[in-house]
Amino acid sequence: MVNAKPNFIFFQPDEMRAESLGCYGHPVASTPNFDAFAKQGTRFDQAHVSYTVCSQSRVAFMTAWPTHVRGHRTLWSLLHDWEPNLLKYLKGDNYTVKWWGKNDLLAPDAWNRSVTSAMSKGGHGNNGKNSYKLTDPEYYSFLSDPFSGDTNTTTDYANVAAAIDFLRDYKSGDLKNAYLICLCCVLHFIYLFCRWLTITMSWLL
Fold first, then answer.
1. Are 162 and 121 in contact (CB under 8 A)?
2. pLDDT tens-place string over residues 11-46
3. Over the Cα atoms of the chain, what is R_g?
4. 39-85: per-residue pLDDT in tens?
5. In this structure, is the dihedral angle defined by the CA atoms of residues 36, 41, 46 and 51, taken in order, positive or negative?
6. Residue 13 in contact with residue 190, Cβ under 8 Å?
7. What's the predicted TM-score (pTM) here?
8. Of 28, 38, 69, 116, which one is least surrounded by beta carbons within 10 A?
9. CA 67 to CA 69: how far, in whole Å?
């Protein structure tokens, strides 16, 4: 019996603007997998975040609260169990809610009722060396040298691969509930997941 509930996949890449994608008209960027994925779904021309920083923005779209509501104004003002959030409602409706990657959304007391499982896979990190000295204000800019190793040894690559494995199990019929995947990665490794989705959309969604 086919599950009548829709499945959801939330991409949450850091530092990605719409204008960086070919499907939004960038004249140089080559993003064929994002472009193909956009053709199979709905591409919004007027989709805006509530805030420019990750935690506040994620809290806003998971609650439908503007950033100035309820004090979620910093990277450490995360959602608590008593507050509304979309993941909690879907899990309560018998969804399998899987999370891979960084958090920046849920406080410790919110995890049990919001997700079925959450993890960040091991790896060699995602960034290269911070080339600034500790005494340099630029040290705290989040800017680093490019990752110097193989991309398939990074933490984000491992998280993407784990999500793909989950979907393969879902295809094989091992899982009966509708699912929501929340995949929080830096930009580069979302391309891998998006490429895999464009190839397999005929049986995933």
1. yes
2. 777 767 788 888 998 888 888 888 888 888 888 888
3. 18
4. 888 888 888 888 878 888 889 989 999 888 888 888 888 999 999 99
5. negative
6. yes
7. 0.77
8. 28
9. 6
